[in-house]
Amino acid sequence: MIKEVIEKNFKTFVTEIDDNYQVTFKGIGGQEGYIVFRPAKRGWSTKPISQNTYLVGDAEMYQVIDTLKLYMSLNEKDITEVKKVFTNISMDILDEWLNSTHREKEDNKENKSEKETK
Q1: Domain limits, the chain
Q2: Using CA atoms, how far apart are residues 78 and 51, in angstroms rounded to an integer?
Q3: Gyration radius of the chain over CA positions
Q4: Tens digit of pLDDT for each residue in 15-46?
Q5: Cα–Cα distances in Å, from 41 out to 21, 38, 86, 118?
Q6: Using CA atoms in the order 11, 17, 21, 25, what is the torsion angle rounded to 10 degrees?
Q7: E-strand spans in the chain?
Q8: Rounded Cα gap, residues 17 and 118, in angstroms
Q9: Among residues of the chain, what percentage have pLDDT more than 70?
Q10: Helix or strand or coil: residue 54?
Q11: Which of 15, 67, 92, 102 is deepest in the core (most CB within 10 A)?
């Protein structure tokens, strides 16, 4: 239910800032929150890390969560679940955005090489 309310009442967009990506949630009433993803570094884990692995580096969701608390009558024990839902939605949005951006770059390379061969 939380996911449906978020998807219905918040617009999302991705912004690239240096090597980081910020997923922003903007509410109908102007509330705004964001989650920043940073590239994972090999030293952080003994497991191999793929080229496109990102970790949550920062988040500012107070306005958004306060709005949901009022709108959905949530209490403090629900907030952990709300944060998980926002994180999961953000990861899905970032993954989709990175894949579409990668496809666009590949298409641009193909178009450029076709023009050069003509």
Answers
A1: 2-108
A2: 34
A3: 18
A4: 998 889 999 999 888 889 999 998 877 665 55
A5: 15, 9, 23, 42
A6: -20
A7: 10-17, 20-27, 32-39, 54-60
A8: 37
A9: 75
A10: strand
A11: 67
pLDDT value of residue 49: 45
Q: Which residues contact 70 (CB under 8 A, 6 or more apart)?
A: none
User: Which alpha helices (H) appear in 19-78, and where do they start and end?
Assistant: 62-72
Per-residue pLDDT of the chain (118 residues), as tens digits, is 788 888 888 999 999 988 899 999 998 888 899 999 988 776 655 554 455 677 888 889 988 888 888 888 888 888 888 888 999 999 999 989 988 876 666 666 665 655 566 5
* Angle 29-23-35 from CA coordinates, rounded to 5°: 90
**Three-state DSSP class for residue 19:** coil
Contact 37, 90 (CB under 8 A): yes
Q: What does the chain come to in residues?
A: 118
